[in-house]
Structure formats: structure tokens, C-alpha cells
UniProtKB/TrEMBL annotation:
UniProt EC number: 4.3.2.2
Family annotation (PROSITE patterns): FUMARATE_LYASES (PS00163)
Protein known as: Adenylosuccinate lyase
Pathway: Purine metabolism; AMP biosynthesis via de novo pathway; AMP from IMP: step 2/2; Purine metabolism; IMP biosynthesis via de novo pathway; 5-amino-1-(5-phospho-D-ribosyl)imidazole-4-carboxamide from 5-amino-1-(5-phospho-D-ribosyl)imidazole-4-carboxylate: step 2/2
Species for this entry: Pediococcus pentosaceus (strain ATCC 25745 / CCUG 21536 / LMG 10740 / 183-1w)
Residue intervals of the Adenylosuccinate lyase C-terminal domain: 349-429
Superkingdom per UniProt: Bacteria
NCBIfam families: purB
Recorded catalytic activity of this chain's protein: N(6)-(1,2-dicarboxyethyl)-AMP = fumarate + AMP; (2S)-2-[5-amino-1-(5-phospho-beta-D-ribosyl)imidazole-4-carboxamido]succinate = 5-amino-1-(5-phospho-beta-D-ribosyl)imidazole-4-carboxamide + fumarate
Molecular function in Gene Ontology: (S)-2-(5-amino-1-(5-phospho-D-ribosyl)imidazole-4-carboxamido) succinate lyase (fumarate-forming) activity; N6-(1,2-dicarboxyethyl)AMP AMP-lyase (fumarate-forming) activity
UniProt keyword Lyase, yes or no: yes
GO biological process, one term: 'de novo' IMP biosynthetic process
Family: Belongs to the lyase 1 family. Adenylosuccinate lyase subfamily.
InterPro entries the UniProt entry points to: AdenyloSucc_lyase_C, Fumarase/histidase_N, Fumarate_lyase_CS, Fumarate_lyase_fam, Fumarate_lyase_N, L-Aspartase-like, Pur_lyase
Amino acid sequence: MIDRYARPEMQKIWNRQSQFQSWLDVEIAVVKAWNKDGKVPDQDLELIEKKAKFDLDRIDELESQTHHDVIAFTRSVSESLGEERKWIHYGLTSTDVVDTAQSLRLKAANEIISADLETLKTTLKELSIKYKDLIAVGRTHGIHAEPTTIGLKFLRWYSEINRNIERFNHARKNIEVGKISGAVGTFANITPQIEEWVCQMLGIGHQEISTQILPRDLHTEYLSVLALIASQIEEIATEIRHLQRTEVNEMREGFAKGQKGSSAMPHKRNPIGSENVSGLSRVVRGEMITAFENMNLWHERDISHSSAERVILPDSTALVDYILTRMNRILNNLVVNEDEVQKDLEMTHGLIFSQQVMLKLIDKGWTREEAYDTVQPIAMMVWNTGQHFMDLLLENDKIKSILDDEEIRAIFNYQYHLKNVDAIYQRCGIEA
């Protein structure tokens, strides 16, 4: 993780102290389960709970000799104990501890991300209501199409984040699981009941079947959902970046007192927040690819996935937390230039009503082909001359042979495009 893009709450989860503490939490939970099973005496459990600890420097020293981090850890813990040390790691293999502890840390990270998603959801809902009736030009292929509203932009993202929350909740349920099933997952030296007790004590689920490791499709699904969340943030950021362009200027990011936009040009106000989260979203999607490749392991386990996950899990969770938080801040400080929105709506001199003209002619009995082929040349004249579309229609004898002046003028009504907006909001669960 790069400090610049990781908030302290997430950094704490993934630091080395938390790593080994989570390992110790698993080890002690296993001892408790063996005690419940009648294997470990009460006195030994009490001593382990009271005295078991680790030392980071000592772990490093031992690992330099053993070249095995879990052995270095268990030996450091054993050095803090007496004869009861024999119960540390009893019946376990390394990944029983590592994978289960990793799921504990993912659960802690998920609590943060879940809160981030709910916060952003609230912001999007508020903005969708605030700008529900602010008519703006809709664009397809980047070209003016027909009127929409600014509120509908935010409503679409609100609907999308609801789907991402649903996906995230499903993926986190699957990833917040442990495995205490031994060297190849057969429970040869431990029991399924021990696994269930341990996971229950730790507040996570237990995987129905594992090898030496948890199945990596769980992690792939999880990283895929994080990539979807990141992609939505980039989608929002891209819209803001376009609408902040000088030629458009319908929205812009907040610009704080004392903020600078360029080292060379004092006039610049750049969408740096949106650009920032766009770039980081690409990183999250890239790390998703690594998760897919981590599924392809030899037999009951190799460690080719392990080194990669030391990078992609802290990075992806930290980055998603960061970009969700930053996008929420961007949206809460967003400036919507309503005058520019109105100006851009009128930029194409009424061309955004061309479909209504065509449909009106069809309603009067024309074929679709005849209506389209009549309206299109008139629309092209607007592009070429800058004259208003309505004026050209009022001057066209063929159009006027079927539509009178009042009917033509009535077509150019922005409110026509808002008649079903309430229904769309209701479909999304918002009465506004």
C-alpha cells in the first residue's frame, strides 16, 4: 500500500502487528476448541490465554534462519510460554492459520468498505432528489441527443450502487470464512467440529470443503466485486471530467481557498479528484486479473498465490476505501452551473426535438421512412447554418401541409421529457 492512497483505518488492518495478532487470535481459538473437545486441560488454556504473545523483531530473526514465516511466528509465541506451548499449532498446517486470519482481516476491511458504500449511496440519493427537475441535455456518443435531467444522472448511479452493495454483501459473506482442515483438507489430525467451533468463536463462517487452502474462486469473486465498485467510481468521475471541460462547464469539482491548478498557469481549475480516482480504479481492475490467475494452483496447494495476495488484498481494499471516500467528498463539494446547463440545452437550436417532430408526422399518417427523410435534411440545415430548427420547420411547406404553427411550436416543450421522471424515481424506490 502507498500511504498517499490508504486511510489510517485501513492501514492499521494490514500492518504487520495486525497480521500476527490475527494469527495469534486463530491459534488461541484453536486451543479453546481443543479444550472444549477435552484435549487441552483447562489450566493449559488459561496459561496460553494469559501469556501467549509474539515479538516482531524475534519473528524476523527466526525467519532469517527458518525461511518460514509461520514457523518463526509459532516459535516466537512458544518462547512466551512454558510446557503448555505444545498446544500451539496442534493439528494445524500453516494455511489453516494464514487463510483463516486473512479472512478476519478482510472482514475488518469489509466493515469499512460497507460503511463507505452506504455513505456514498446516501449522497447519490440526496443529489438525485436535489436535481430531479433540473433539465439538461442528454448526450449519446458525446453528441447532444434529447433532454434529460441532472437528477437522473445521480439516480442511475444510486441504482447502480445498490446493485454493487448487493454484490459486495454476497461476496463478503463468501470470503469471510475460515478453514481448519489440515495439510490437504481431510481433517486427518483435527476434526470438522473443531473447525466449526473455531470459526464460530472468530465470528466468521467455515468453508464447506477446502484443500490446504481456501478455494481461490472466493477471492476472485471478491476482487471482481471490488473492481466493479471501482469501475462505477470511474464512471462517475468520467462524467464529472467531461462536464467540467471549459467548453461544457456544467459541473466542476470544488476548488478550495489556496488550491492551485497548475504550476505554470494560474487560471487552471482541474478535475484532479476525478482524475485521481479514475487512475486508481484501473489499478483495482488490474489486481482483479491477478486474482483470476491465483485460482490456477497445483494439486492441493502451491504458494504462487501467496506472494500476490500480500499485494493485491491490502492494495485493493485500501484503494476501494480511498476512492469511495474521495468520490463522496467530490460529490459533496460539486458545483452545478445551472446557467451553463440551460445554455448547453439550447446550443443546438432546437435539434434535440427532432424525434418529436418525426413522431408527430407519423401520428398524422406518414410512414416512418417519409417522416425521417423529411426531417433529417432540415436538421442538417441547422447544423450548417445555425438557424433555429423550429423556424425552419415553420418555413417548410411540406411540414406545414400537415402541421400548423401551433402544433409545431408545441413540440418544443422541455417539460414533455419530464412526464415520466416521477415513475423512474419510484422504480428506484424514491418518492421525490
